[in-house]
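tool_call: predict_structure(chain=1)
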Amino acid sequence: MAKPDDITPGVQPDADAITLAAELSTSGADDLLGLLSHSILNETQLLLLLERKDLPASVLDEIGRHRDWLRSYRVKRAIAFHPHVPRTLGVRLLRDLLLVDLVRLSLAPVAVADLRHLAEDQIVSRLGQVSLGEKITLAKRAAARVLAALIMEGVPRLFEPALRNHRLTESQVLKLLANHRLPERVVLAIGSHSRWESLPNIHLALLRHPEMPLELAAKTLPHVTKADLKALLTVKTISAKLKRAIENELKQREVSPQKST
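tool_result:
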């Protein structure tokens, strides 16, 4: 669509195109609904309209009713990213978005919060069809829930980028460790990672996990308070060997009371 600043010198601009551009940029909701119901806009004109962040849900819903317009991937993407997209329309469009755009949407601060969450669900549901290279890229960029799903897969090459990602929160790691089906290699990766190995809540979650390796537990126990060690002895999920290690740690503290209490 021709814009006044884009007109080639010596070429007469299309007056109708300029007028339509002005209407798309400035008209209110009622006028836009009338324009959408009686006009056949092209992709460029629709994208110009969708740049307006003040568009109400009714206008976006009207665009979503036109199947011909939704054949354009760029139009579908622009609607899905719009801060006022109706939930029903947004959910329908999520299924058609490429993985890279789902990641962008899940992280977009202006996107509808519910859709960001659903975009994460879509990413997780597609992980089975995603290559290892793409998963490594996701581990460097994705949101916390996606990172947790990647870690859950137990692929060693995903551990470092996912556990290092600043979007991975302590609460998400604690949710991971609350899953007693988590493989030992994942427990070991979390417990030996420099970002997580010194956090008290992570220590306790690791020690409660039935797959906690005894060697890692031995390194963790000295950093746990006496009261927490006694509480751990009542936890049913930990092994008999770990309970003996906890009892030995408590006995050593009786001999060396300067250790953590």
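agent: The longest helix spans residues 240-255. Proceeding to next step.
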